[in-house]
Amino acid sequence: LVRIFLLSPDFQPTSPSHVDDLALANLVLVADCAEFLGLTLDVTLFAFHMSGPNWVAPWMLLSDGDDPALAAGSNPHKLQVIAPSPPNSPTPFQTLPHTALYRNPFHDPLFMSAQLLLISSAVTALAKSPAVALWNLSNEHDQFAVPRSDAEGVAWARSLAAAVRAADPLGRPVTCGLHADSLRFA
After folding, report:
1. Which of 52, 86, 113, 125 is the most buried (most CB within 10 A)?
2. Cβ-count burial of 38 within 10 angstroms (0-12 exposed, 13-18 middle, 19+ buried)?
3. Under a CB-based contact definition with an 8 Å cutoff, are residues 35 and 125 in contact?
4. How many CB atoms lie within 10 A of CB 46?
5. What residues pair up with 47 in beta bridges, in sequence order?
6. How many CB atoms are closer than 10 A to CB 90?
7. Taking the CB of residue 126, how many other CB atoms lie within 10 A of it?
């Protein structure tokens, strides 16, 4: 079993209402290669936190005039924030201040709709792949953001798991890559 991670800025780099076609095509290619090699996959649908920093797409950042409450609970551990660099930049990514405000996936309506779109797109793209053994909602999401309440965390997990189940005709298991701090939301 090989765990793969969909890094959020790669799959929804420019808009919460669009999933990158090339990223989806590459995801299907990875699944096809896994099948060819006799491997099975644990597909982690959201990797906002990975290997130390928190990864954001530009649309996730709060703009002037946005309600700061949309960011409540984001970056609870004040970790490094990485975002794609502006066009024509010499590097593909930029480091933002750890105080950068970004939308919280547990309660921001725009972020929630983006998550549901990515689930629908990715699970549908891999729906019939025999290489997929299970779906994983997130990687250590409490490092990226925390819900305002336990009930909000449970509602988030149930909503996303229901979306995965609705898009997966094979009914594969759905799990969530929890950091130890997240166990209270399970």
Report:
1. 125
2. exposed
3. no
4. 26
5. 7
6. 5
7. 23
Q: Distance between CA 142 and CA 105 in Å, rounded?
A: 11
The first and second tokens of residue 159, run together, are: 């909503």
Q: Is the pTM of this model over 0.70?
A: yes
Amino acid at 137: L
- Is residue 119 within 8 A of residue 167, CB to CB? The reply is yes
The H or E element that residue 68 is part of is: none
Fill in the DSSP letter of residue 98.
T
Residue 46: strand, helix, or coil: strand
Q: Where are the alpha helices (DSSP H) in 40-125?
A: 109-125
